[in-house]
Amino acid sequence: MRVTIFGTGYVGLVTGTCLADVGHDVVCVDIDQAKVDGLNRGVIPIYEPGLEPMVKANHAAGRLTFTTDAPSAIAHGDIIFIAVGTPPDEDGSADLKYVLAVARTIGGHLERGVVVVNKSTVPVGTADKVRQTIAGELAARGVDVAFDVVSNPEFLKEGDAVNDCMRPDRIIVGASSQQAIDRLKRLYAPFNRNHERIVVMDVRSAELTKYAANAMLATKISFMNEIANIAERVGADVEMVRQGIGSDPRIGWHFIYPGAGYGGSCFPKDVQALARTSQQHGYRAELLGAVESVNERQKGHLFELIERHYGGSIAGRTFAVWGLAFKPNTDDMREASSRRLLQQLWDAGARVRAYDPEATEEAQRIFGEREDLVLCDSARAALADADALVVVTEWKQFRSPDFQRLRQSLTDAVIFDGRNLYHPDEVEAAGLAYYGIGRGRSIQSH
Ligand code: UDX
């Protein structure tokens, strides 16, 4: 099928590439000429495992092209995706200016019947706004073509996005016309083998499903962080508690890892946006507010542990920081817990030597040159002249360090483990002090 995708950001690029990979003829549109030129040369603007070779192969095969020419792209697609950003407004609600700008462009050039698909995460009711915007433009041009607007939210995880897209556990299609449903079923048929993954529903339920999924996952994380903070005070170990509850299938093993707080482009933004939508409809969503405030507090927790260890005298010390990205396998630092930690350390007069396998360039861009930050090119280099080690992102390569060597490198022989990668007994047996998240047993011994 012929597919057009507006937006070559994370969602648009991954979706377009996967659709091309199963044989569709995909044109991706972006307003950023440099990005489009780069993509046509095989330069991928994001780090995502497996994506680059797929983009190159499908581009070479002629199934995936990138352009800034919106009118010809609109003429190309039987299905037109909107996959542009929805950054948070000042009040936390999703800003629809990019989505509606694309809708105006579509309405300004459409000459034949198409299905317009909202892939961006947008508040309930946006599909109606997109429909009205396109209809308004068509009316202004005096053109009469039939079109449908469908909600088809994405559930990609950064770092595993290609896999999520190629092997989705569900495909949500929110539509009111049978013709649109049939067209999306044809589009997704290659991803819908062996058992039915397509869940058809009305447009508003589909829009809410996306927020509900992310809010539920964020809730699980904040819940565990809350339990971790209780564990710390009562002298229990949250890692034991996690194992004790995860075995109950009603709770499950996923997303119950306590840590330095959730970050990224989705959870913080979507929890806030859902709370805001709910408020606009006259309902105060108590739980969502708590999920967010627990997370905000949690992002400051590593620093609290550091302050506690040093009795508040942090000025002049040097901290090795392992991990800057908001999670492993990405270079994304949006809302990353590392950003809060580094700022707190700097405000307290400390220096930072940081290492991240992928996010160095991004960190350089965000922080610029500063004398209290050295971005190192290996985990070991970050340890040089450091007083203590703080682990913020659970990259695989940080999982089993040589604790003896760490003890020799770190002047104060102490580890602050923001992702509970290590076992307190093992670290302490090597002669280091250990602080994890919610590990009351070891914390109370300091
Ligand atoms: C998330 C959703 O998983 C995905 O379905 C949706 O489409 C977009 O938002 P993503 O933001 O890429 O994906 O990251 P995810 O792997 O979900 O992690 C989000 C954050 O939660 C990370 O900062 C991670 O460290 C944290 N996290 C996750 C925890 O602190 N504990 C956990 O148990 C799981």
TrEMBL record:
<dbReference type="Pfam" id="PF03721">
    <property type="entry name" value="UDPG_MGDP_dh_N"/>
</dbReference>
<keyword id="KW-0560">Oxidoreductase</keyword>
<feature type="domain" description="UDP-glucose/GDP-mannose dehydrogenase C-terminal">
    <location>
        <begin position="320"/>
        <end position="424"/>
    </location>
</feature>
<dbReference type="InterPro" id="IPR001732">
    <property type="entry name" value="UDP-Glc/GDP-Man_DH_N"/>
</dbReference>
<dbReference type="InterPro" id="IPR036220">
    <property type="entry name" value="UDP-Glc/GDP-Man_DH_C_sf"/>
</dbReference>
<dbReference type="InterPro" id="IPR014026">
    <property type="entry name" value="UDP-Glc/GDP-Man_DH_dimer"/>
</dbReference>
<dbReference type="Pfam" id="PF00984">
    <property type="entry name" value="UDPG_MGDP_dh"/>
</dbReference>
<dbReference type="InterPro" id="IPR028357">
    <property type="entry name" value="UDPglc_DH_bac"/>
</dbReference>
<dbReference type="InterPro" id="IPR008927">
    <property type="entry name" value="6-PGluconate_DH-like_C_sf"/>
</dbReference>
<keyword id="KW-0520">NAD</keyword>
<dbReference type="GO" id="GO:0016491">
    <property type="term" value="F:oxidoreductase activity"/>
</dbReference>
<dbReference type="InterPro" id="IPR017476">
    <property type="entry name" value="UDP-Glc/GDP-Man"/>
</dbReference>
<dbReference type="Pfam" id="PF03720">
    <property type="entry name" value="UDPG_MGDP_dh_C"/>
</dbReference>
<protein>
    <recommendedName>
        <fullName>UDP-glucose 6-dehydrogenase</fullName>
        <ecNumber>1.1.1.22</ecNumber>
    </recommendedName>
</protein>
<dbReference type="InterPro" id="IPR036291">
    <property type="entry name" value="NAD(P)-bd_dom_sf"/>
</dbReference>
<dbReference type="InterPro" id="IPR014027">
    <property type="entry name" value="UDP-Glc/GDP-Man_DH_C"/>
</dbReference>
<comment type="pathway">
    <text>Nucleotide-sugar biosynthesis; UDP-alpha-D-glucuronate biosynthesis; UDP-alpha-D-glucuronate from UDP-alpha-D-glucose: step 1/1.</text>
</comment>
<comment type="similarity">
    <text>Belongs to the UDP-glucose/GDP-mannose dehydrogenase family.</text>
</comment>
